[in-house]
Design brief:
binds flavin-adenine dinucleotide; globular; FAD/NAD(P)-binding domain; seven-stranded mixed sheet; alpha/beta; 12 helices; HpyO/CreE_NAD-binding
């Protein structure tokens, strides 16, 4: 969309083995809901009314604060794709979607790149002058202990595609879900709806916090210098204050910032309860009463932290103390209020239990019925199916010895790993040369706290596109062939 709006390319190739919309917004079950409300989910520009206008156009009754099914966002993305395809055609821009995966990018002479596509007979390679990598997250993370069972017929590496999972889980099953965050909640809501009983198991045994929505960062500007000082307090080499003192400083800072922006006392914004059901219930009350004002600051915090991290060479060179970071992520990745209410109902109906622990032993048979015997520190159980909801791997892109950018790697490689500049262009560490290749979304993971939301990835795309426009104008002024993945 941005490339067509900027009239920056003569040809645009979109390379992706998946259809437009990707995995997350390719959901087909309308009980898989967005975790972000309408007002922060536009893909045209962040915080625009574009999505709301679209919903009105297609007759979906929604407001700024509504949560819609992820399928609806998928339809909205496809609608925009068709719209911009027409605009591209009118402007003489050639757009081609190639259903393939790109495995490597070779640098050719005169600023051109050759993209090697996997298993495509018509297009084994294509050439382009500029490349944007929008490759999202990688494969599902499967805990090592489940590795030997990954081909078992009632083991699921992730709940998606959800229709496949639901079709394979035998009727009225006891299902173990590994994880207790967003993906685990998605899986739980569908499985409980279908009459299964679910146990969520995770090392923290904690559900995400609960929020109503988000507020755009421009409404709640955060002073970056204060945060910068806070982040500098903890060092991975241990040369820092003791954890207790650091934690105290973090909390004082948070309380101070929250008081600056809201009249709701800090103590009324959070639950101090420990037991899962009681805590969830209290957090739902807090959100219902609109006392969860911390949510107004989330986007500002993430924007500020992302930009501070970007100035560091490595995210983990300076970071928050790990225990605090985990707690902070519980709020950053909080659950949307409607989903939290459904989860509470399932706990109340005794069809959902949330347990804390790490899996220590697994026995899986090929028999029908309770094929899984799983033990964890603190308990054990027999299950008909196991679903992993432990997140997704990050891509680790690097330049190999031949100077090619390797894209099919899920393994961290310190040697030749791409360096990402502020304008999101990448620098080849072997040649120290800036490439006409830009990275957005999850692949920027080693430079930022998170980009896992539309409102975070759209500004990245805008920044990358602005940088590309500048690069084009600085160059000979020739027209460019753009590749996005
Ligand atoms: C479970 C879950 C729920 C989420 N819910 C929300 C939400 O409610 N609201 C929200 O704003 N955000 C949500 N997000 C985050 C959201 O998915 C991302 O912000 C958004 O999808 C980023 O878009 P993207 O195009 O960068 O990546 P993606 O949507 O992940 O798309 C990446 C695409 O790249 C393709 N690809 C990967 N490697 C290659 C390769 N080598 N060659 C060719 N193609 C390749 C993949 O096939 C994929 O289609 C959620 C994420 C997850 C995991």
């Amino acid at each position: 969309m941005a490339a067509v709006q900027n009239r920056i390319a003569k040809s645009i190739y979109i390379i992706d083995p998946r259809p437009i919309g990707g995995m997350v917004f390719g959901a087909t079950d309308d009980d898989i809901m967005c975790n972000t409300p309408v007002d922060v989910s536009s893909i045209d520009r962040a915080y625009s009314s574009d999505l709301l206008d679209y919903l009105k156009h297609v007759g979906v009754d929604a407001a700024d604060s509504s949560y819609v099914p992820r399928r609806v966002i998928g339809d909205y993305i496809k609608y925009n794709f068709r719209k911009y395809l027409q605009e591209a055609t009118r402007s003489g821009i050639n757009v081609l979607k190639i259903d393939s995966s790109c495995s490597r990018i070779n640098a050719l002479s005169r600023g051109r790149y050759e993209l090697v596509l996997s298993g495509h007979t018509v297009w084994p390679t294509i050439c382009a002058t500029d490349v944007i990598l929008c490759t999202g997250h990688g494969l599902p993370k499967v805990p090592l202990i489940f590795g030997p069972y990954s081909e078992h017929f009632t083991f699921f590496r992730s709940p998606y595609p959800e229709a496949e999972m639901l079709a394979k889980v035998p009727a009225s099953s006891d299902v173990l879900i590994i994880g207790s965050k967003q993906t685990a909640m998605d899986a739980t809501l569908l499985l409980c709806r279908e009459g299964h009983r679910v146990t969520m198991l995770s090392p923290s045994g904690e559900l995400p916090a609960v929020r109503r929505g988000f507020a755009p960062s421009y409404k709640f500007p955060i002073e970056q210098s204060d945060l910068r000082e806070l982040i500098a307090l903890w060092c991975p080499d241990g040369s820092h204050l003791n954890d207790r003192s650091i934690r105290k400083k973090y909390l004082l800072y948070l309380a101070r910032t929250l008081r600056r922006f809201s009249n709701t006392p800090v103590s009324r914004q959070f639950s101090k309860l420990k037991e899962t059901r009681e805590r969830l219930s209290e957090e739902i009350h807090i959100a219902d009463d609109y006392n969860c004002r911390w949510e107004d600051l989330i986007i500002s915090y993430v924007d500020a932290i992302n930009s501070i991290y970007f100035d560091c060479k490595e995210v983990n060179a300076h970071d928050f103390q790990p225990g605090f970071r985990r707690k902070m992520m519980r709020y950053i990745a909080a659950a949307a209020l409607p989903n939290a209410k459904k989860i509470l109902k399932h706990i109340g109906n005794d069809v959902l239990a949330v347990k804390q622990g790490n899996v220590t032993n697994i026995q899986a048979s090929q028999a029908d019925g309770k094929a899984w015997k799983v033990r964890w520190d603190g308990g054990e159980g027999r299950f008909d199916a196991v679903v992993c909801a432990t997140g997704f791997q990050n891509h680790h892109y690097y330049f190999d010895d031949a100077g090619a950018l390797v894209l099919d790697s899920h393994h961290a490689s310190a040697v030749g790993r791409i360096d990402i500049a502020h304008d999101l262009s990448i620098r080849n560490p072997r040649t120290n040369k800036r490439e006409n290749i830009w990275v957005t979304g999850s692949a920027t993971h080693h430079r930022i706290l998170t980009s896992s939301a539309i409102f975070l990835s759209i500004p990245q795309v805008t920044a990358a596109m602005n940088s590309m426009v500048n690069a084009v104008y600085e160059s000979l002024g020739g027209e460019h062939d753009l590749v996005g993945k």
